[in-house]
């Protein structure tokens, strides 16, 4: 297990140059935008416009902050995403346009290479103690709001807002957490 502190996340331009993303984690480590197997990032969307195209990639998006945005995904009806919405999965290699509802938003973006890797993103509210099942060998727990402590076996630690716990090679295990926090759990499965 490794804690990725908010202050250490890498800032970089969007692939289409339309904004900035905060890269939380990527595999292989230090992979570029064309060569990653999986990537977890956050971005502030401050204007309407198209999403970057990533050939062969599946993505899931959740709204962390702001009043939401409407995604117009080719071949689907437009969908409004807000902080209350479940994360939305879609292909990253088809045209997608975003229209903000009322001001800028911050989103959480999980992307995996379609050939051989899948992922799942869920929002978790923590109020006191909770046990989180870790169903895949690679999991990331983002503490979005609040703070929490965690324990798995003899390993312990704490996350503040913006911190991420990266858990590798621990499939079919559990993580014990305690605190008051809104979190997002990313599960990445290599097929």
UniProtKB/TrEMBL annotation:
Where does the source fall among the domains of life?
A: Bacteria
Q: Per its UniProt record, what CDD domains does this chain match?
A: cupin_HutD_N (cd20293)
| InterPro entries the UniProt entry points to | RmlC-like_jellyroll (IPR014710), RmlC_Cupin_sf (IPR011051), Uncharacterised_HutD/Ves (IPR010282)
User: This protein is called what?
Assistant: Environmental stress-induced protein Ves
């Amino acid at each position: 297990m490794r804690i990725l502190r908010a202050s250490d996340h890498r800032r970089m331009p969007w692939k289409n140059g339309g904004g900035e993303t905060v890269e939380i984690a990527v595999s292989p480590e230090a992979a570029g935008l064309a060569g990653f197997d999986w990537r977890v990032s956050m971005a502030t969307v401050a204007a309407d416009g198209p999403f970057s195209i990533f050939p062969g990639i599946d993505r899931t998006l959740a709204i962390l902050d702001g009043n939401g945005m409407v995604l117009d995904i080719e071949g689907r009806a437009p969908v409004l995403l807000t902080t209350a919405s479940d994360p939305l999965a879609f292909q990253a290699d088809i045209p997608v346009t975003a229209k903000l509802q009322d001001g800028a938003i911050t989103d959480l973006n999980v992307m995996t290479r379609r050939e051989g890797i899948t992922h799942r993103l869920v929002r978790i509210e923590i109020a006191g103690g909770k046990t989180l099942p870790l169903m895949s060998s690679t999991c990331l727990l983002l503490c979005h709001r609040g703070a929490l402590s965690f324990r798995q076996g003899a390993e312990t630690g704490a996350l503040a807002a913006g911190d991420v716990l990266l858990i590798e090679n621990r499939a079919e295990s559990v993580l014990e957490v305690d605190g008051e926090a809104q979190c997002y759990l990313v599960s990445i499965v290599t097929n």
